[in-house]
Amino acid sequence: MSLLKGFDGRDPARIGQELHRFAAELFPICRSITGNGIRQTLAIIGRRIPLKILEVPTGTPVFDWSVPKEWNIQDAYIKAPNGRRVIDFQASNLHVLNYSTPVHATMPLSELKPHLHTIPEHPDWIPYRTSYYKEDWGFCLSHREMLSLQDGDYEVCIDSTLENGHLTYGECYLPGRSNEEVMISCHACHPSLANDNLSGLTVATFLADSLCRCDLRYSYRFLFIPGTIGAITWLARNQEMIRHIRHGLVLTCIGDKGRFHYKKSRQGDAEIDRVAAHVLKHDGDSHEILEFSPYGYDERQYCSPGFNLAVGCLMRSVWGSFPEYHTSADNLAFIQPERLADSLRVCSAIVDVLEGNQRYRNLNPCCEPQLGRRNLYRPVNADAIGEEIHARLWVLNLSDGENALLDIAERSGIPFSVIREAAQLLCQSGLLSVIQDNVWIGNGRGVASKEHKVKQS
Amino acid sequence: MSLLKGFDGRDPARIGQELHRFAAELFPICRSITGNGIRQTLAIIGRRIPLKILEVPTGTPVFDWSVPKEWNIQDAYIKAPNGRRVIDFQASNLHVLNYSTPVHATMPLSELKPHLHTIPEHPDWIPYRTSYYKEDWGFCLSHREMLSLQDGDYEVCIDSTLENGHLTYGECYLPGRSNEEVMISCHACHPSLANDNLSGLTVATFLADSLCRCDLRYSYRFLFIPGTIGAITWLARNQEMIRHIRHGLVLTCIGDKGRFHYKKSRQGDAEIDRVAAHVLKHDGDSHEILEFSPYGYDERQYCSPGFNLAVGCLMRSVWGSFPEYHTSADNLAFIQPERLADSLRVCSAIVDVLEGNQRYRNLNPCCEPQLGRRNLYRPVNADAIGEEIHARLWVLNLSDGENALLDIAERSGIPFSVIREAAQLLCQSGLLSVIQDNVWIGNGRGVASKEHKVKQS
Amino acid sequence: MSLLKGFDGRDPARIGQELHRFAAELFPICRSITGNGIRQTLAIIGRRIPLKILEVPTGTPVFDWSVPKEWNIQDAYIKAPNGRRVIDFQASNLHVLNYSTPVHATMPLSELKPHLHTIPEHPDWIPYRTSYYKEDWGFCLSHREMLSLQDGDYEVCIDSTLENGHLTYGECYLPGRSNEEVMISCHACHPSLANDNLSGLTVATFLADSLCRCDLRYSYRFLFIPGTIGAITWLARNQEMIRHIRHGLVLTCIGDKGRFHYKKSRQGDAEIDRVAAHVLKHDGDSHEILEFSPYGYDERQYCSPGFNLAVGCLMRSVWGSFPEYHTSADNLAFIQPERLADSLRVCSAIVDVLEGNQRYRNLNPCCEPQLGRRNLYRPVNADAIGEEIHARLWVLNLSDGENALLDIAERSGIPFSVIREAAQLLCQSGLLSVIQDNVWIGNGRGVASKEHKVKQS
Question: Does B133 touch chain C (CB under 8 A)?
Answer without folding.
Answer: yes
